[in-house]
Amino acid sequence: MRAALMYGAGDVRVANVPDPTIQEPTDAIIRVTYACVCGSDLHPYHDLEDTPDGRPMGHEAIGVIEEIGSEINRLAVGQTVIVPFAFSDNTCSFCREGITTSCKHGGFFDGLETGATQAERLRVPQADGTAVVIPEGTDGSLMPSLLTLSDVYLTGYHAAVRGGVGAGTSVAVVGDGAVGLSAVLAAKQLGAETIILMGRHESRTDLGRAFGATDVVAERGEEGIARVLGLTDGEGVRVVLEAVGHMPAYEQSYGIVRPGGTISRVGVPQYDNAAVGFASLFGKNVTLTGGPATVRAYLEAAIPQVLDGTIDPGRVFDRALPLDEIAEAYRLMDSREALKVLIRP
Question: Which H, E and C letters describe 83-105, residue by residue?
Fold first, then answer.
């Protein structure tokens, strides 16, 4: 089969690789029909060391089940399913508490041992607990929005849930990428009253306004902090949703959160050490939360919202390319010529 492999920073190619096979009785094999490039895929695109054998890429997918293991009871060949970026049995103690990304028998589609989704086929471990069936007969036009439920929209939703966004909450979203815009949409769905989107790319912030942002702040650093404080009577916002993962975004976040507020991070942090002392979190009694989105815990509730038109998160896709043009997909996203690229294997 054909799959996207990354051989080093900036070097993504399509190569022929062996078809995945059933390795455990809890596996399923799907034919990938929709995939995409994630903003987090750009981290190795910037700094991956030379990898002669190539690293399989991608962790978001919709596909059709072609084969199932002997212990699969909930799924059937021929069904179309959403595959979250993390696999889980959905029965262990952590899964039962909704922390599916910490499943005792789970893991991530990181491309090293499990395979990856920017490919024609994918092995899904713990398939009964991981994959969620899309109702038969669903209109194909809804597939991009359903694909966002594998990661990007529900990552934004996770940020809002962990941050405690509710009716009347004041929220700032740091980052105007697909996750940040999804966080805007999610905050609106959860009833936020004020939603300040911190981003400087007009085409993206325009979509953010359509998703529910009440204000846009293009400035960064101290100037950006001052703008947000000016919009909130000098108090700051109750919840900050940080969707970038770089240190300046974190520093901006603790600069704009109000005393007693919450910072919820879902941008994959590209740092290990960060300020938590008196001048950042401690002095203002700020709560720091967030983490890998527990997508599987939200999927059943989110699918009907897409099907009935309550949400249309697929608007974050502004380009669609075949798998053979995966290198161009990465280039477009890295250069910010595209917000998020849909891939059709």
Answer: ECCEECCCCCHHHHCCCHHHCCC
Residue found under tokens 């809890």: 26
Global confidence as pTM: 0.97
Residue closest to 257 by CA, chosen among 221, 225, 218: 225
Tokens of 277: 């002392």
Sheet holding 237-242, edge to edge: 215-217, 194-198, 170-174, 237-242, 257-265, 287-290
Half-sphere exposure at residue 117, Cβ-oriented, CA atoms within 13 angstroms: 32
3-class secondary structure for 296-338?
Answer: HHHHHHHHHHHHCCCCCHHHHCCEEEEHHHHHHHHHHHHCCCC
User: E strand or H helix at 145, and its extent?
Assistant: helix 143-147
CA 93/CA 255 separation, integer angstroms: 37
CA 232 to chain centre: 29
- What does the block give as tokens for 148? 């966002």
Residue with tokens 């703008």: 227
Q: Is 2 exposed, middle or buried (0-12, 13-18, 19+ CB in 10 A)?
A: middle
Q: Is 287 exposed, middle or buried (0-12, 13-18, 19+ CB in 10 A)?
A: middle
> What number is the average pLDDT over the span 5-12?
97
**pLDDT tens-digit series, residues 104-131:** 999 999 777 788 999 999 999 999 999 9
What is the signed CA dihedral for 212, 216, 220, 221, rounded to 10 degrees? -80
pLDDT in tens, 211-256: 999 999 999 999 999 999 999 999 999 999 999 999 999 999 999 9
In this structure, are residues 169 and 187 in contact, taking their beta carbons and an 8 Å threshold?
A: yes
Q: What is the pLDDT of residues 32-45, one digit of tens each?
A: 999 999 999 999 99
